Amino acid sequence: xxxxxxxxxxxxxxxxxxxxxxxxxxxxxxxxxxxxxxxxxxxxxxxxxxxxxxxxxxxxxxxxxxxxxxxxxxxxxxxxxxxxxxxxxxxxxxxxxxxxxxxxxxxxxxxxxxxxxxxxxxxxxxxxxxxxxxxxxxxxxxxxxxxxxxxxxxxxxxxxxxxxxxxxxxxxxxxxxxxxxxxxxxxxxxxxxxxxxxxxxxxxxxxxxxxxxxxxxxxxxxxxxxxxxxxxxxxxxxxxxxxxxxxxxxxxxxxxxxxxxxxxxxxxxxxxxxxxxxxxxxxxxxxxxxxxxxxxxxxxxxxxxxxxxxxxxxxxxxxxxxxxxxx
Length: 327
Prior knowledge:
This protein has 327 residues and is of the alpha/beta class. The protein has nine helices and 14 strands. α1 (4-13) packs across α3 (101-113) and α4 (168-177) packs across α8 (292-311).
């Protein structure tokens, strides 16, 4: 993952010699979006700006800069047609910027602030070969006469997931999302079943009452409930629905399990409208496999669909997902 924390760590490990590649413009069909970035050192890279000849050319230029020990940034204009023999046919401008001492200080200051506030963005300007980066609180921050201006979110994480259950399917979900830009709270009451090593984007929580952690998750979090106990699943779903402020609630199980849970939740005082916000079964209907890895891939794909729909302003995705399952 190319979070700013990882970039800073990699920059330090390189001895302070690295070049940051950022997609500053993407026109037509391109392999990565505006703001995608990767870090290049003399020995390694992290992240990707699209692979293929595009990335090879940009990495080659970054390595040339490292060899020349220059601190002058530039824009690399890369048409993806005949020149690079890529079939995308679009055009990508890559900002190639050696990280300097001031960049290192800037990154440290960003990380000391902690989690960026909502609508906090990074404004990157390139003017006469010099890069200026500053925090802004509005995407429409003033335009300048710079050669290029890039405004991107400071927090690259697409969503936060609260995953209840560290069984076989839970472990498979973690493996699928380990390299995806999201954060995960992994919750179970059994400490011994967690793996010894966790991905960087995962924090484990061991609690005898995991349902109490539902209210501690960030607003609009996604919740996946797949514990070893149906009773525990019920308590967690009830806690999530009562707390509200969630982006998605998915319960592993069948249509039969859903119907039983609907009746039990309604008996506990939950309204029909509230219970309707629970998704069960979970995963894409086109994928019927029951192997833990198949379920995890299907569920992860559903989460990405939900994230994309939230981005275009569909706030309540549960009814939409149910309609799709009935087709």
